[in-house]
Amino acid sequence: MHGGGTMRVIRSMGRHMTTTRRSALIGLGGALALSACSRGPSRDDAGRRDVVAAGSPAALLVWAVARERLAGWPRRPGQATLSALPAPAAGLPELGSLTGNGRQANLEALAALRPRLIIDYGDTDPEYQALAQRLKTRLGADWRLIDGALGRIPDAIREAGDLLEAGRKADALADQAAEVLEHWRRAPPGPSFYYARGTDGLETGFRGALATEVLEGAAWTNVAEGSRDIGRVTREQVAAWDPEVLVTLDRGFAMAVRHDPVWRWRRNGERRRLLLLPDLPFGWVDRPPSVNRLLGCAWLADPEGSTMTLGALSRRLYGMALVEVGQPRWIL
């Protein structure tokens, strides 16, 4: 599961296969065939940044559990994201992705880093397990594939903590994640919604898609039907679906449509609500689909009383202070 770009989701409920990830597998297959880099496991000092994240979701997991071990970003975050993270984030190089979209990693360059461990976080299909074995041989580093299902985030955090020798820190975060998800699952039914992605709002996650799992799991009803993927729609389709709420992470889109009658007025004459969710340092719904989604779950479970939970969770996930945590905003 990987964020950024348009992804066609093949599987549902947190176990989606994406076409970008599948394409990356094909591309890496060719790279592996050409690469002759194979070396024994390194035995470097414990303080070295010796863990490579296979994709952006894995990078966020490693950052949350043991950020001092992360060797670099698969895809370097933008300046706004880096400014919202502690200073060491900006000093990490871009290594390229092994399993996601964006620039593919150079296997020779990765092998030269002598990583002790490569972590992937997402789909656990046999294809990825086979890829892990091939890369383990080529790079001379252990490869661990951790299940990225939303409901299994606490287990993923604990597993990463064991692998990264950060058990105490991971246990505290996993306990909080489990509590957040328990409250999220018991959230009272919410409104019908349309999830507007991108600057024009016409990319969305259809009902059952990974991109809308945070909202749907909190008993909000996704009006977008016709596929289980992420795809493009028209303004006319959105109007016909007639959602009670527009949800977006894109501030530019929210400001552009705040007075647009096509977007803001429902068929019954009522004004449609517009919810702008934070996207810094990472999105609360997806982008990427990793541990960052816990923030969306926490807020949906208790929109009025989650401020302290969001602050504590953001500090553990990112190293951010309470005053730096963004809040959802209802746009009038």
Q: Structural class, from helix and strand content?
A: alpha/beta
Quaternary:
single chain
Radius of gyration: 20 Å
Intertermini distance:
34 Å
Describe this structure in words.
This protein is α/β, with parallel strands linked by helices and 332 residues long. The chain has 2 domains: 19-167, 3-Layer(aba) Sandwich (Rossmann fold), CATH 3.40.50.1980; 192-331, Rossmann fold (3-Layer(aba) Sandwich). Helix content is 38%, strand content 12%. It is built from 13 helices and 10 strands. It has helices at 19-34, 56-66, 79-83, 107-113, 126-139, 153-163, 167-185, 213-217, 235-241, 251-257, 261-264, 293-301, 307-318; strands at residues 51-53, 117-122, 142-147, 192-196, 203-205, 221-222, 230-232, 245-248, 273-276, 329-331. It has a 5-stranded mixed β-sheet with strand order 6-4-8-9-10, with helices on one face. It has a 3-stranded parallel β-sheet with strand order 1-2-3, with helices on both faces. A two-stranded antiparallel sheet has the order 5-7. α2 packs across α6 and α12 (293-301) packs antiparallel against α13. It is globular. The two termini are 34 Å apart. The model is unreliable at 1-20 and 22-46 (pLDDT under 50).
Short description:
This protein is α/β, with parallel strands linked by helices and 332 residues long. It has helices at 19-34, 56-66, 79-83, 107-113, 126-139, 153-163, 167-185, 213-217, 235-241, 251-257, 261-264, 293-301, 307-318; strands spanning 51-53, 117-122, 142-147, 192-196, 203-205, 221-222, 230-232, 245-248, 273-276, 329-331.
